[in-house]
Amino acid sequence: MTPFTNNPLTRPVEILIVEDDLTDIKLTQRSLERNRVLNNLHITRDGIEAMQFLRQEGDFSDVPRPDIVLLDLNMPRKDGRETLRDIKNDPNLKAIPVIIMTTSKQETDIEGSYLEHANSYVTKPVDMEQFQKVVETINAYWFTVVKLPSD
């Protein structure tokens, strides 16, 4: 099987993971590798770092613009709810698709995320095999079916 790419230039998909849990980061990395998604994976550990990355500030001055953001809601310093709001209120960032990947099943979080213009809301399973299936589903939809915006 050939690794997937989402454009005719066969460039890797730029993925930003905003996640504070190292286990979830590693599971996502492994799942993307197993699904053979041609990607460059970037990781920030909270909303403050994520916004610096997205705005290419400080240590992130020469990072690429992500094609998609995988965003956890529950993080220290600046949580995913605030980060989502900041992304979608920024005219330079709002077109970047944001997938909420969180353990929260609370209806207020689900509804609130969509009201703030999240593109998808996925509840992370605790079981490793189920987590793999979730990432496979994200891969099948976001990296093979959907046409992502370019810079």
From TrEMBL:
Keywords: Phosphoprotein
Domain of life: Bacteria
Domain Response regulatory: 14-139
Methyltransferase is among the record's keywords: no
4-aspartylphosphate carried by residues: 72
Keyword Phosphoprotein: yes
TM spans (from-to): none
Gene Ontology BP, a term: phosphorelay signal transduction system
InterPro entries documented for this protein: CheY-like_superfamily (IPR011006), Sig_transdc_resp-reg_receiver (IPR001789), TCS_response_regulator (IPR052893)
Pfam families recorded: Response_reg (PF00072)
CDD domains with a match to the protein in the record: REC_Rcp-like
Name of this chain's protein: Response regulator rcp1
